[in-house]
Amino acid sequence: MLKAIIMDFDGLIVDTEVVWYKIFQDWFRENHHYELPVNEFLQCVGASSKRLFDQLAAEKGIVVDDKRFAEETKQSFIQRSAQLPAKEGVRDFIIQVKDAGLKLALATSSKREKPQHHLTRLKLLPYFDVLVTAEDVAKIKPAPDLFLKAAEQLGATNKEALIIEDSENGLRAGRAAEIPVVVVPNEVTKYSIFHGAYLELASLAEVDLDNWQKSFGGDRHA
């Protein structure tokens, strides 16, 4: 029986990944005269930028001071994301979840301040029973820690929960947690390959929650 929904934040609830990709492109172009392709950027979507920076240093000799990068891009992100709306179908889906009596958690590799700010701004925060962020676990995605902790705090087993994600790293984390993952790609993550997803949708507006609850537990894959 489905008892709990666990949602990612960046790129799923608010389309911050598109904003971040543009910021990464601009920064690398300005500082290293390097055109960052989307397949390289995808490594840090839903995870940490350290994976990307390590690869660029090893393979291309591009050395990035991650603290400097964070300092120089923070304000740009704040400005560009300040008025981003919730993505298509998000609000209605969240309301469906709560109307159905299901528990709802957020599980994000971001620190708490950002998702809490945007959920408050969008008047979505009260719908969430639990927020689990990078500050609450030892390892972020693609490790399963965030999802396992969210399920635990909601009082649901991995057979009673369903994850909603937009990234390959998120899918890997969900599979490691042995929790089914519904993938809703965005304009950046649509270039990923989502092997082993429970279901893949173009938007949360496509969700029929009643059917999900009736069919949950079957071996459904995209």
Summarize the SSE layout with pairings.
Blueprint: E1 4-7, H1 16-32, H2 38-41, H3 50-60, H4 66-81, H5 90-99, E2 103-107, H6 113-121, E3 130-132, H7 145-154, E4 161-165, H8 168-176, E5 181-183, E6 199-200, H9 209-215
Parallel strand pairs: 1-2, 1-4, 2-3, 4-5, 5-6
Helix pairs in contact: 1-4
Structural class, by secondary structure, is: alpha/beta
Mean pLDDT: 93
CATH architecture of the largest domain: 3-Layer(aba) Sandwich
Low-confidence stretches: none
- Could you state the order of secondary-structure elements as H and E? EHHHHHEHEHEHEEH
Widest sheet: strand order?
A: 3-2-1-4-5-6
- Main beta-sheet annotation: 6 strands, parallel
The total of helices stands at: 9
What distance lies between the first and last C-alpha atoms, to the nearest angstrom?
21 Å
